[in-house]
Design goal:
Length: about 500
Amino acid sequence: MPPLSWTPHRPSDRLLLNMKRNPAIKAVIAALLLVAAYAGTAAAMMGIEDEKKLGEQIVAQIERQAVLVRDPEVVDYVASIGNRLLKNVRVKFFGYHFYVIKDDALNAFALPGGHIFVHTGLIEAIDSENELACVLAHEIAHVQGRHLARRMERMKRVNIVTMSAAILGLFLGKGEAGSAIFASSAALGASLSLKYSREDEEEADRRALEWICAAGYNPLGLVATLKKMQRYRWLGSDEIPGYLLTHPGTSERITYIEDMFRRRPCNKGKWTGKVEDEALDRIKVKIRVLSGDPAVLARKYRKRAKEHPDDIIAMYGLASSLLAAKNYKEAISAYQAIVARRPKNVLYKVDLAKALVAYGRYREALALLAPVRGKLGSAGKFVLARAMLESGKPGEALALLKKIEETWPDKAGLYFLLGRCYAAQERPGTAHYYFYKHYSLMGKMDAARYHKAMAVRHLPPGSKLLKDLEKEEDKGGKKGKGNGRRQG
Ligand code: ZN
């Protein structure tokens, strides 16, 4: 038997039927469908390449708005822990980059495209490398889960500038670094819709736990750090740490991380609960010396070293603040005393070599580092390169610098040294090219223009560097038009 008559039984169906009969409404529906289709494409998952580009743009903004720690050892320290975790991540969408922001907030965050930031306040607050590893693993997991990219799909009408402001505001918060960010309420609104969800958190923790274990760390470090943040919240001012704002559900996280760990303890008994944390203490000293008054710090560390003659970190604090105060002679003998106590630790040798180079004792620095060159990180390579250049070996210096060019955090300093190496090799075109890059990064535009003109004069026609210079001109000419990326 056929149906009696088809009667719309839901109001929406009836409405639709009425609408379909009306030609004017028909047109409106067609238009709406078009908009929906367009919104659909705009809302599609952001592609990997787009995510990379967006990440780079936001990094450039952070570099303008926040103070980044450029000390390569500090950055290397964080990056080496991050890379140890990343070795256990099977499919990586991005090449990861690690940064340290000079800011007291207890915070860490990940930008789209694999850029991971840690605030110095967090480094000061943690008690072990393990804790930092756990925080980094969680941030890597947000990137790998593409959580932020997914949230961005929902921000269809928001242009790139607002989106960047929103992300900056979200992660830099109200601190010094973030004060001017929420200029527009659009950015504030967008920022609120970008926060991670509790599901994101749980997914990130689950992934992170796997990598933490595989890298030989202990996931309970994550619990320890979360508890610290909670304590900070209650003890500190009424300001909630930015981390807790963007990563919700702290108490639940503590409970289920402990639970997951209880059910699947990792490392098969390898975990001893102890790691060598002298490295972390060294990094903390470096951070303090970067932001404090070196004379005051030197007094403080000298007192501590006197009271505890076995305290290497007190000696290290003294040596580092003496160097920062440009008291080279005393700094060198303080570092020498440390190297004598820790003859196998290459990092202390690098510090001593840096002080020697600063004081013009290049050959001693060369003799100290050349035998351990295979063990040097990028900070060590940079110091060794400088010692080589000053000892009349620009070719060897160049070979070392080329190895660290990609990842070296202080690009201005690197370009200057590269320029000097090429000048020493009597390659004026390339030398001027790097001096140009150095001065334009330093914002010294008169000097930059001079070196650019000289580079153009000396570089052979058709050379890659010359093309680079021309390309930059193009970019400069188009500036101001390119910011409003279409968001649908
Ligand atoms: Zn999170």
